[in-house]
Each structure stands twice: as structure tokens, then as C-alpha cells.
Amino acid sequence: MASERKFFVGGNWKCTGTKDSIKTLVDGLKEVQFDASRVDVVVAPTFLHLSGVASQLAGSNIVVAAQNCGKHGAGAFTGSHSAQMLVDADIPWVILGHSERRSIFGETDELIGEKAGVALAAGLKLIACIGESLEEREAGDTLKVVLRQVAAYAKNISDWSSVVIAYEPVWAIGTGKTATPEDAQTVHAAIREYLAKEVSAETAAATRVIYGGSVKAANSDSLALQKDIDGFLVGGASLNAAEFGVIISAYRQKSNL
Description:
Low-confidence stretches: none
Mean pLDDT: 95
Distance between the termini: 5 Å
Strand content: 15-25%
Helix content: 25-40%
Strand order of the largest sheet: 7-6-5-4-3-2-1-8
Structural class: alpha/beta
Number of strands: 8
Order of helices and strands: EHEHEHEHHEHHEHHEHEH
């Protein structure tokens, strides 16, 4: 039986891209064929390139996300941007809680949860990132860490209809290492069980939980076959339009479940 949750594929371009390279990438993405009734496709360029990429993608079935936003409104916050600014610029999605924001910029579970609440209240849709480090994994603390992070979001979210949870084990991001489909499924199932217990059974059934961490064309189909994996948040492979297109096509695997 096919999943009732619509597949979701996001591309996080991180801090990469020039005007020329982005134009080439976007031109390639516009050639990718997929059934937009079965999969949502979102790409996240740098803040500098957001509006330009959104304009270039106009008329396609691909939309954009910001990679971050503050918990504040307009004001004296040099170097930052608010959720309201993203809404005003017609940016529909935002990524929050990515491991690089946590580890490099020192963002805490509490801050990320607060930012999530602000973003949703402003009218953005949210890609809520979670994931454990290698040390936490080796200590057997994967579920403890992941569910603590989910709880920080849940404290600030009353309506989950605009939320996609992205489980990205930190040890697999950009390393070439990937959780096995079975390991990823175990974590995704635990997240869904937490939502059923702490939020509602309806929220648990409806909320999309996607996987990130060295997702590529070669492993996307096997990951998509897991019943609780509803798509991907893709890093490096999203910078190659052809490979990203193959990853997007993994939505077809859900018809086999």
C-alpha cells in the first residue's frame, strides 16, 4: 500500500554557488521530470541567491527555502534576516536546526525551537533538522539525542501541518557514510512513535520525516523503500541536476509499499 504522505525532496546548497554555476544548475533542474502531485521539491540556495533562484524557477514545480532565519523581527540585528522578511519576499520554506548551525554557530535546542515557532507563526513552512553526532551514536545515545531535539521543536509547535522533520545523522553528512536503510527506518519509526505519544496519532501519521546524510542516486531508492522514510534532504548531490533528478524519482518507490 502506498504511503499517504506526499514524498519530499529538498536540496541544501549550503554556502556554495556563483551566478554562473547557479544558472547552469537551475537550467538543469528545470529539465527534471517528476509528478508534482506525488512529490514536493524544494531547493535552498544561499540568502544572497534566494530571490534570484526563485525567479529563475518561476513556472516550474520547484520552490525555494531559506537556510536559516532569526527568532527576531526587524531591527538592529546586523547580518541576520527575519522570518517576516522571507514571507515578504515570497520564500515559502525555511530550514532550521541544521547540524552546522548547531555545531559551528552554537545554536541550542532551545533557540532552534523558538525560531521554529516564530517561523511558523510568520507563515513559513519548516524543514526541522535533527541528528546525532558520531560520539553520541557510539555511546548508544542516538534516540535520546534525536527525541530531545524533536521535543524542543514540539514545545514551540501547535500545528504540524507545515512541518517536515529531517533526520540527518551528523556523522553521515558530507562524509560519504550513510545510515543503512534499516538503521534510518528505526530512527524514523521512533520519531513517529514520539509524535503519536506526545502530540497526537493524527500528527504522527501525517508528518513527513525525511532522511539526510550522503544521500545520492545510488542509495535513494533503497532508502525510499522504508515505510517511515518520506523523502530526503540532500547536500552535495543536489548540486548536480542530473543526480538530483534521479533522487527525486525515488518517490516512485512508494507505490511499491
